[in-house]
Write a structure and sequence with these properties.
- The strands form six sheets. This protein has a seven-stranded parallel sheet with strand order 3-2-1-4-5-6-7, with helices on both faces.
- The longest helix is centred in the last third of the chain and has 40 residues.
- It has five domains: 165 residues, Rossmann fold (3-Layer(aba) Sandwich); 93 residues, P-loop containing nucleotide triphosphate hydrolases (Rossmann fold); 59 residues, no CATH class; 220 residues, Rossmann fold (3-Layer(aba) Sandwich), CATH 3.40.50.300; 84 residues, Helix Hairpins (Orthogonal Bundle), CATH 1.10.287.
- Helix 3 packs across helix 4.
- Helix content is 45%, strand content 17%.
- With 681 residues, it is an alpha/beta fold.
- It is extended and about 110 Å long.
């Protein structure tokens, strides 16, 4: 069968026609489909892009104004319509359609088709019919409308069918194959055996495949950055309207056009971007605080008036009394803003300047599967390192390797001195699900010690928004966000100078995220974090270790956005430029022998390299001793000059350690260079 479509003017008319054409092509792959549109209009771009042929006629609309210029325009439109009808007849005779359908600019085509006895349908997307539809109503066989209420506008009631407006599947649905591929799902896996994260992925895939109206609750949790980016692109390009809950600020910033905030049982709607919402919310809260202050001042004045003497009470205005009672009720009903998390990490004594050194470290499982190839890096005190990569690529394995929980299968991992590690586990395995909130943090004690200060555990947990009625409930009854806050509360009771955070941002609200960022930014120790929260990474990390799926661990300066800018192009990463061949390459019969001077340099460098760890340890020990001396409260009073000299020496030692680390890198590089010369053939 051949189907003739006429449409144009706006996407609201074109896309429904494309939706119907897509269904026909799926059900009848051999059918013929031809579109007719107006010269130079939007359809000449959208229709070919969707993979359909289109021919055009000269059609212009009718203006309703009686101005002379508009009357002249309408005469031209009538002339175009007559010519378009002739052109339409020619198109129909050539294409031989079995049925024709259209909307908006379809008048000459459908009119000609009806005159030739071809079954015709007109579709009206608007609630009230336009001029073209009214003119065709008497000629076509069926009138399709989007709303039940639209039927009243047509005298030909028997022709009217309520169909709604067809929506292109490309805009609302994802194929099963694409959903499985992009979300990393195993089609053969038993759902009951999946982890919580993979179960969420299955639910997300099901929604994308089966739903036209999408409601998404924290869709980015447990997704890697690559998948989050795909999901963003999918929603932007192919879903017209959807509602989502998310604390991923980058995700919200790209997608949201309207934001609804739930605050103290009230809904506040903001028709704006995320950044504009932040500004408007602050303005609203500031105005609310000023209004509350003025209200409280007025209430205090009225309370003072009611408490006046006997004369005042005899002569008081009863209307004023009733107003005061209403003010009291309003004040009692006022709900204060929900508190925000107050975080303070307990820091241990400073670690050495060198925290972790990886030297040509690689890792493979006993079955031969290689997680990543050999890589080298040096992590110094105060660094904030972000680990990124797709799910399953080995980020947690790399963390365990750097922490010494796994031995590298090649190369070495070396740790610095005086390391105190606190580990935030994304699986929350350090929380006992059967113990109460209090017992998980204080191990049955009533107090915890934070930076030398004892605090009651109930007061401490209030800083993490745990009210008194939640302190004795078992952990397994908590929400995901509550468990994350509890894990942070427990983590920060432990003295540390190396914080290791594996997906700390899941289920945290925006305000808690921002406070966590502030804490980590001011933390004087070292931070290693795995995260898929792009803004969190951009705001915090100084260096990014990227596992890029090819067995390589590559180091980049800066956060996620910096990695995007610096990473190699996908094609260039796997394409080697051909090198010109020399006309007569000299034959090499064996390794080149180093000169005497190079041999001597190599041996001296190896001796220096062997001595450098001891030198670093000596510098750190001296610094530690001097820091203990400075901590003596009476030192300055006894010896002000000695105090100042000690402080100066500590600063010098810090510089010396930095220089020693730099020398370490230079020595290793030169040794590798010399040994490489000796291996050349």
């Amino acid at each position: 069968m051949n189907f003739l479509f006429t449409c144009g003017g706006t996407a609201g008319h074109i896309n429904p026609a494309l939706a119907v054409a897509g269904i026909l092509r799926d059900r009848m792959p051999d059918c013929g489909i031809l579109f007719v549109g107006a010269n130079g209009k939007m359809e000449t771009d959208l229709v070919p892009r969707a993979g359909y042929d289109i021919v055009t006629v000269e059609v212009t609309n009718i203006h309703r104004s009686l101005k002379p210029s508009e009357i002249a325009y309408n005469f031209r439109s009538l002339h175009n319509a007559r010519q378009a009808t002739k052109d339409a007849r020619k198109i129909i005779e050539d294409f031989q359609p079995d049925i024709g359908t259209g909307g908006y600019v379809c008048y000459p085509v459908l009119k000609a088709a009806a005159q030739l006895g071809i079954p015709t349908i007109v579709h009206e997307s608007n609630a009230v019919p336009g001029l073209t539809t009214k003119m065709l109503a008497g000629a076509v066989d069926r009138i399709l409308v989007g709303f039940e209420e639209s039927k009243q506008h047509y005298s030909e009631q028997e022709k009217v069918v309520v169909t709604g407006t067809p929506v292109r599947g490309a805009f609302t649905a994802c194929s099963k194959a694409e959903a499985k591929r992009q979300l990393g799902l195993d089609p053969e896996a038993d759902f009951a055996t999946l982890s919580g994260g993979n179960k969420r992925r299955v639910a997300l895939a099901r929604a994308l495949v089966a739903s036209e109206n999408l409601l998404l609750d924290e869709p980015t949790n447990h997704l890697d950055i690559k998948t989050i980016a795909w999901l963003e692109d999918f929603l932007v390009r192919r879903v017209k309207t959807f509602v989502f809950i998310s604390h991923d600020r980058a995700f919200v910033r790209r997608l949201a056009t309207r934001i609804v905030e739930v605050d103290r049982s009230q809904l506040y709607s903001y028709a704006c971007t995320f950044d504009q919402f932040l500004e408007r919310r602050e303005e609203r809260l500031d105005a609310e605080e000023k209004q509350a202050a003025a209200f409280d001042k007025k209430l205090a004045q009225e309370e003072a008036w009611i408490r006046q003497g006997i004369k005042a009470r005899r002569t008081r205005n009863m209307g004023r009394v009733r107003a005061l009672q209403a003010m009291r009720s309003e004040r009692m009903a006022r709900v204060s803003r929900q508190g925000v998390v107050s975080m303070l990490a307990q820091e241990a004594e400073r670690s050495g300047k060198l925290v972790i050194e990886a030297k040509q470290a690689g890792f493979a499982y006993p079955d031969g599967y290689r997680v990543f190839n050999a890589f080298s890096t040096i992590i110094q005190r105060g660094d904030r390192i972000g680990l990124i990569g797709n799910n399953g690529v080995g980020k947690t394995t790399l963390l365990r390797l750097l922490l010494g929980e796994l031995e590298p299968t090649e190369g070495s991992i070396r740790h610095g001195t005086r390391l105190e590690v606190s580990y935030f586990d994304q699986l929350r395995s350090s929380l006992d699900p059967e113990k109460s909130v209090m017992d998980n943090v204080a191990n049955g004690n009533d107090t915890v010690t934070i930076n030398g200060q004892q605090r009651h555990v109930a007061s401490y947990l209030m800083d993490f928004l745990f009210e008194s009625d939640r302190l004795r409930v078992p952990v397994h009854t908590l929400s995901g966000g509550e468990r994350n806050r509890l894990l942070l509360a427990k983590l920060f009771t432990m003295p540390s100078n190396l914080l290791v955070l594996d997906e700390p941002t899941n289920d945290l609200d925006v305000e808690t995220l921002e406070l966590l960022e502030e804490l980590l930014a001011s933390y004087s120790g070292t931070v290693l974090m795995v995260s898929h929260d792009r803004e969190f990474l951009d705001n915090l990390v100084t260096t990014t270790l990227a596992l890029e799926g090819d067995g390589q661990v590559r180091e980049y300066v800066g956060g996620y956005t910096d990695w995007l800018r610096q990473r190699p192009e996908p094609v260039a990463a796997h394409t080697d430029k051909p090198k010109p061949k020399p006309l007569a390459p000299p034959a090499k019969i064996g390794p080149r022998k180093l000169t005497f001077k190079e041999q001597r340099e190599l041996q001296m460098l190896k001796d220096e390299l062997e001595a450098l760890p001891g030198k670093m340890a000596a510098l750190e020990d001296e610094q530690h001793t001097l820091e203990d001396r400075l901590n003596d409260p009476g030192f300055f009073a006894r010896d002000p000059d000695g105090f100042n000299a000690t402080a100066k020496r500590i600063s010098e030692l810090d510089d010396e350690q930095t220089a020693a680390l730099q020398r370490w890198e230079d020595v290793e590089f030169r040794i590798a260079e010399l040994e490489g010369k000796a291996e050349d053939k």
